Amino acid sequence: MLLLGAGLLIGTGACLNYRMTQQAPREPISDLTLANIEAMALVDKDHDVSGGVTCEGQGHIWCPLTNTSGYYSVTVIEFPSKN
Amino acid sequence: MMECKHFRKAICLVCAGISPFLGMSCRSGAKLSETEIVKIAVVPLPGDTAFLGYAAQISVVDTMMYLQDNRGGETFLRAYAYPSLKPLCKFVTRGKGPEEMLAVSGYTADKDSVRVFAAQEHEMAVYSVSDLCRGINKPVRVIEYPQSCMPALAFCGVKGGFALQNSSSAYRLTLIDSSGHIQAEKYDIPVSETERKKVQPELIPYLWQSVLASDGAVVAVGTKLGDVLEIYDLEDSLRNRVVRGEGGEPAVSHKGRGMQMGTISGFYALDIADGKVYALFDGSRLADYNGQDAVPRKIFLRVYDLSTGELERIYELDRHISSFDILTDGKTVIATDPNAEHQLCTFTLPE
Lengths: 83, 351
Description:
Chain B: It comes from Rikenella microfusus. The complex is a heterodimer of chains A (83) and B (351). In chain A, 34% of the residues lie in helices and 28% in strands. Mean pLDDT of chain A is 59; it is low at 15-45. Chain A has helices at residues 2-23, 31-36, and strands at residues 47-50, 53-62, 69-77. The radius of gyration of chain A is 20 Å and the shape is globular. Chain A starts with a helix and ends in a 6-residue tail after the last strand. A three-stranded antiparallel β-sheet of chain A has the order 1-2-3, with no helix packed on it. The radius of gyration of chain B is 20 Å and the shape is globular. With 351 residues, chain B is mainly beta. Chain B has four helices and 29 strands. In chain B, the strands form seven sheets. Chain B has a five-stranded mixed β-sheet with strand order 1-20-19-18-17. In chain B, strands 2-26-25-24-23 form a five-stranded mixed β-sheet, with no helix packed on it. In chain B, a hairpin with a 4-residue loop joins strand 18 (218-223) and strand 19 (228-233). Chain B has helices spanning 2-22, 129-133, 193-198, 204-207, and strands spanning 25-27, 37-40, 43-44, 55-61, 64-69, 75-81, 87-94, 100-101, 104-109, 113-118, 123-128, 141-144, 152-158, 161-166, 171-176, 182-188, 210-214, 218-223, 228-233, 241-244, 252-255, 258-261, 267-273, 276-281, 299-305, 311-317, 323-326, 332-336, 344-348.
């Protein structure tokens, strides 16, 4: 009975946790979050990569992280929610 | 297809109905397929553009020409004599020191001065044209603005002040004066609810990053990552127009582990002349980008009526220019081609 009860509790907890994760609103990206995200492994001389944002190529687009212009493509890596 | 047409009509009817209340009217897709495309040949100019990275903005004022370079080099701007194209001065030093800037949102020039707005330092540097002609590249004045003016992504002059596209503001335009004050923040970003839900609020101004042009009373705003041209009359909001073209509004798409900002390469530069908005538009799909520097693609100069937002003409240019300025004769255009050996070039608008 004790084992059954513990199993039920864990199962319910896992379900609730999963639902909360699914329903959690998208968390805004704060400067701090951007600054704290580790640089991705994509770093090389042609890529400005940091904080989950990659800005590459030669063009007329602003990079949201560095606030510099002259890029062609901007990709934002999606962050896992903290909740 | 018919249903789609009816739906778009219905949407526009609703927009027309409520526009007096919103102070803005909506125009359905610019009918590219119905507008004749006229081809124009672009001719290189011999000016010295050695070590120029990516020319972002060019303008000719009387006997001076200015060129903004967003990548490469120690300075952001160059001054040339016009029409000789003799280099006069490089100014706005890149850096973190006093009188230096990390990035430039844009500049505006008149007969006496060039005003440069920093992207990150929330300040405007004022350069004297007579100083630049003598090779003096120090600003005569640096005006500090509130921190909420940064990061500034675009900048232009308007009647009685200046306009910014400011990525920390939820509004489309921030109007500032020439002595360090914000005058007003105006207009909502016309993002659809569908796209708004896909993107963090902080990233929407970047998704809607734009090029600006003004004739003083009206500001034209063209999205760099979409096919939306906005026309804002600063004195009469009932005359505002949002022209949504066939390329759609700036949108995100999934790319690897994240999302790509924008699905198309949109507007590169705008100019207002003789009651028309001249808009340099690309329209190529960003999904075709292969990780290399942008290869030459087609680029078009669209001509819109300034008061109605109607797309009237389309010119296809045989070189992928990145910026342009229409001279006072209304026909001669000076432009930049960042992919060419001689980046300065010119063409003439047909009658």
